[in-house]
Design brief:
Layout (H helix, E strand, L loop, with lengths): L2 E6 L6 H6 L4 E4 L5 H9 L5 E6 L5 E14 L23 E16 H5 L18 E4 L1 H10 L5
Parallel strand pairs: 1-3
Antiparallel strand pairs: 1-6, 2-5, 3-4, 4-5
Length: 154
Amino acid sequence: MNHWLFKTEPGCFSWADLEAAPACTTSWDGVRNYQARNLMCAMKMGDLGFFYHSGQNPSIVGLVEICREAYPDHTAQDPENQHFDPKASPERPIWQMVDVRLVRALPRPLSRKELAGYPELAGMELLRRGSRLSVQPVEAAAFAFICALADIPL
């Protein structure tokens, strides 16, 4: 099993939006970075990920599960969508998305500032200066450490 982190601006799509989604499931669409797209293509059913609110109070707020592996992101082909890419077509979709399902909220948000204080997480992509990927891998040891901090049994 691999582990991931999904960043989102709460004003764009929040944990509350995921809770309100049908079956607490949503597609993770609109990713327009090739490296992040390739990471989504590596995701497998059952992989777990952290749901991360960026913005004013950046923090991990919940745990999600991959419930559908990568498939073409239809928003890239919709001229009315903010994520439209004129280079994408049905024959060459370019962009991919996955579906995620809510597993559970963290008992309390774990802020980026708090996470940065743990030497065990020093190599985490999220904590690297200048890291802007909206989808990131999380090493198994870091994932387990954060789950223990959040009092989430694995």
